[in-house]
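Exercise 3.2. Students should predict the tertiary structure of the chain below and write it as structure tokens, then compare their answer with the key that follows.

Predict this chain's 3D structure.
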Amino acid sequence: MGASSPEYRWLWPSALAADPAGPLAARRSTRDWAVDSLCFLLAIAFTAWIVVELLDPASETAKTWGTTPIWLTAVDAVASTIAAIGLWWRRRFLTALAVYSLLLTTFSMASALTQLIVVFTVGVHRRFAVLAGYTALVIAANAVFAVARPEGGLGYWEAFGWGAAINVVAALWAMIIRGRRQLIVTWRDRAERAESEQRLRVAQARVLERTRIAREMHDVLAHRISLLSLHAGALEFRPGAPPEEIAGAAAVVRSSAHQALQDLRVVIGVLRTGQPEDEQTPERPQPTLSALPTLADESRSAGNRVRLQINADPESVPAATGRAAYRIVQEGLTNARKHAHGAAVRVVVDGEPGEGLSIEVRNPMPVTVPARPIPGTGMGLIGLAERALLAGGRLDHGRVDDDFVLTAWLPWPP
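Answer key:
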């Protein structure tokens, strides 16, 4: 329900503000049924008891308050009964019930308990400003009641003080209940917000992880497929090669295709469905600097002349830095096979703890464009630059004299 609902139209315009502690539900809960029934029964019982006491001249109430005219007792009984019945709908029609009870307070004795329940309800379901204003009006009505129906044995100020104190106690009790409800609502909102933020963080982590896997897919598959293309091309253009060479090239094609399919199956499976954290299989070890000689041998078998020089201890390089360095060298060799097939490629990896790890991949610029160039996405170097940036390093590439040079620097903490 919004702030413009009828139950929010209170004694003055400022009371129309939304109240997070006391929105009135369209349907009552089991607790609401129990509380409303108890309030209704107590108010009816109190009204009946006071009316019976006033009608009996020998009762203590009649002796204390003096003889009450029959007509006033009848009016009090009827009006207080209506107010007690109205408690059943006190949440939905609180404004009308509060105004009606306020008028009864000026002369009615039988509606005293009903009035306290109304004050308590206002305190629970309305803002403090509304409660304070209404309590002040009830105290003013009590001042009128103390004059209209003085209590025997008590002075005016004493009778007025007792009535005001009881209403203030009811208002304070309602404020405590309201504050507790607001605190519970705040805790619930915070818990729901924290849960929503946690779900968002999990979703973001999954997206980042899938993006990382997509980059890995590009790096791995581009390397595998470039080998496939080169060896398949050799088979196509040299049909009369010796059987040993044909068998070797076919073995490389079969092995590379098998590995590429395995990598692709894993990547596509993760990107399509994703696995819950408790069902994930252990991730395969990612290659680092120690795998560079194997990578260079694969490129040599594809026809490139690779000279690899590693001036750093691969075992002492941090795992994250080693993985990033491996992918950079892998992409550099893949580009060399695509654009300068058969050219000499020089790879230098150098670095020390505290100074960082430097990588250089250099190959001559191609003189002619291959008749059937290996297709690519054109995003390899962009992905490498992003990978180096995420690792805290940098990557540059371009033409230097007659060579194409790919250089990178990655941090290596001391």
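Discussion points: Residues 156-237 form the longest helix (82 residues). Residues 26 and 201 are 35 Å apart (CA to CA).
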